[in-house]
Structures are given as C-alpha cells and as structure tokens.
Design a protein that fits this description.
Elements (H helix, E strand, L loop, with lengths): L1 H11 L1 H7 L6 H37 L3 H7 L4 H24 L3 E9 L8 E7 L10 H13 L4 E5 L7 H6 L2 H5 L8 E4 L2 H6 L1 H10 L3 E2 L3 E4 L5 E4 L15 H4 L9 E4 L6 H6 L4 E4 L10 H8 L5 E5 L2 E5 L17 E9 L18
Helix pairs in contact: 2-3, 3-5
C-alpha cells in the first residue's frame, strides 16, 4: 500500500517534480515523470468534474426528499461500478485527446489590406504559436512541426511566443533548437516572446532564438525592404516580475501609416491599443483555446478574442490555439494548428525604397 501511495504522489506531482529534480537525475527519467504528471493534470480535472456532478445530484435528491428511495433502487455494487466506469471514460478521453494533439491541421485564410508594398502585392504568411519546446515537445516533434511549416512554402514566418517551454538548455539538448534552424522563408522568420520565455529567461531565450536565425522583436519595430512593417512586443506577463513593456505607440511611432503594419503580441490582451495605433494585422497565441474542455469557455470569458479570426474596423486579428501544448500533450476539442494567411495588398503602390534598419524604438 505504501508503494502505491508513493507512486501516486510521484505521478500526481510529476510535472512539478521533473522541474525540481532537473540536473539530479537522467533526462530520460525526467521526461517520463513529467509526461506522467502532465496526463494526471487532465485526469484530475475530469475526476473533479465528475465529483461535482455527483455532489450536485446528491444535493438535488436530498432537497427533493428522494435520496433514500433512489439509493434503495441502486445495486449494492453501484459505487464500484461508477468508479470503474468513470476511470475507463477518463482514460478513453485522454487517449483520444492525445491522438488528437498529434494531428496538426492547416488553417488557411485570405485577407485584404488596403495598403501596398513596393513589390509583390501578395504575401503568404505562416503563423505558428505556442510550440512549447522542452520536455514534452522534443526535437523529433519539432522536426515534424518545421516540416509542416516548410511544406506551406511561406514567404515569411511569424512565431508569436511560447516557442520555448521553461528551459533553454533542454531545447538545445533534445534537438529542438536545431529543428528551428531549418525553417525556410525568403523574407525571414520573425518572433515575439511569450510568458514561457519570461520563465526561461528573456535574454537566454533571445540568444537561443537569435542563434538559429530567428529575428526576435522585443518591443521593437522593423521595416523590410519592400515596405512591410513588423513590430513585436514583449509579453505582458513581465509585469508580474516588476518589469514593464513599452506602450505600442512608442514602438511603432516611426512607422509609415501608409504602409502595412503587422504586430506580433503573444497574449491577445491589448487589441484595442493595437487598433488605436493603426495596426493592420495582429497575430497572437497564448490561449490554446482552453486546450481541453471546459476551459475553452473560460478563455472566452477572459479575452475579447480567444480564438480564430476577427476584424475590428480596419484591423485584422488572428488568435491561434497553437501547435504545441502547455503541460499535458492532450487536446480535447480543436487539434493543433498552423495558420496560413494569404494577404493581398489592395492599396496604391508607392514607389521608392522604404527599407530601414531595425528600429529599437528608443531602447
């Protein structure tokens, strides 16, 4: 019995234990402990929901005076049968969610922006968010993700935060960083940082991503040679650590409002600020659309746009549910996605070289 209890504790707290014991036991064991613990997170949620449902039913029967009569009609083995049935159901749901998470889908859409660039007026964008490279999403899985990205033949790739999950050293050791170096896009790969990069260390995350050719914009703005303007914000989670990020108007104050502006911001919390600043397209992640039911309803209550495409005035918004997962590699609902946005610039073409060096916006 003692061994069973010890095993249960290790599994239940595995996700936390794996991080505490990093560097003290072999990585293979850490991966197993972390994976087991992450599955338990999902199991606990559904066991808890079933418990709430049973308690609600119990109270309803109690208040209506039907509790004893209902009990008398149930077989003596009902409690055991209920527990076994619930366990089987939860295991089936988690298993289905695991396989659902392995199936990356392509969400493709087309939008018009009433501005122009100096060259091709059609731009094929691939947006990827929340890869969460680390214990769960290892180098092998990263290779699969990058292959899907490259198969879309993007002109430009945007990574909107939580690329790294907690620890940069693990990403290097398991091949995740090497996989990122294989992204192919003629106009480059641009990224903003998310809350996970804050946990992993902003500077360490920047250095890793920069080393594999990813242009990380930290409250910065860049103008490409064709006039396309890209801004990237530091994550709002910095405020928890006593840090801040620049107001958006200070970041893109030098932007030419006659040319298209694309903003990368990990969390969709500052959409109104982006609209007021004249952003044409904002790309966000973070929400995972709840990742598994019923948290999709929770994120809808927190964010104005929790998932998918929206348009506020002239500003286009896309919030992706991500291609990786936080914690458990389980998705109950929408599968992981990579987003392809075909942009058609419909404005009057402006002549002249609009290319500028990287603007640090006062940094």
């Amino acid at each position: 019995m003692g061994s069973f209890i010890s095993l249960f504790i290790v599994v239940a707290l595995g996700y936390l234990i794996a991080r505490i014991l990093k560097g003290y036991i072999p990585q293979a064991y850490l991966d197993m402990i972390s994976l087991a613990g992450s599955f338990w997170i999902v199991a606990f949620v559904y066991f808890f929901l079933f418990w709430l449902a049973f308690e609600a039913g119990h109270l309803l029967l109690l208040f209506t005076g039907k509790l004893e009569s209902t009990k008398s009609k149930l077989p003596k083995a009902f409690p055991a049968m209920a527990v076994v049935s619930i366990v089987i159901f939860v295991v089936m749901v988690i298993t289905a969610g695991y396989f659902n998470n392995r199936q990356i889908v392509i969400r493709e859409m087309s939008i018009d922006i009433d501005k122009a660039v100096s060259e091709n007026q059609n731009l094929r964008v691939v947006m990827v968010t929340d890869i969460h490279l680390g214990y769960i999403v290892d180098g092998k899985r990263a290779e699969q993700i990058i292959k899907v990205i490259n198969d879309q033949k993007p002109d430009i790739v945007f990574l909107t935060g939580d690329i790294i999950d907690i620890d940069t050293k693990t990403v290097v050791a398991n091949g995740g960083a090497a996989a990122l170096d294989k992204i192919e896009a003629p106009l480059g790969v641009f990224a903003c940082l998310g809350n996970r990069e804050e946990y992993a260390g902003e500077d360490a995350s920047f250095e890793l991503l920069d080393s594999v050719g990813i242009n990380v914009l930290r409250d910065e703005f860049i103008n490409l040679a064709n006039g396309l303007q890209i801004a990237g914000r530091l994550d709002v989670s910095r405020e928890r650590f006593g840090k801040s990020r620049k107001p958006l108007k200070n970041i893109i104050g030098v932007a030419d409002k006659n040319m298209p502006i694309i903003l990368l911001d990990h969390q969709p919390k500052a959409l109104k600020e982006a609209q007021d600043a004249g952003v044409d397209l904002i790309l966000c992640g973070h929400t995972h659309n709840g990742q598994f039911w019923p948290f999709n309803y929770v994120v809808k209550m927190i964010f104005d746009v929790a998932y998918g495409y929206a348009k506020w005035g002239d500003m286009n918004i896309y919030v992706s549910n991500g291609v990786g997962t936080w914690g458990p590699p389980v998705r109950i609902g929408l599968p992981p996605e990579i987003v392809v946005i075909n942009i058609h610039f419909t404005g009057k073409v402006l002549t002249g070289d609009k290319g500028l060096p990287l603007q640090s916006s006062g940094q």
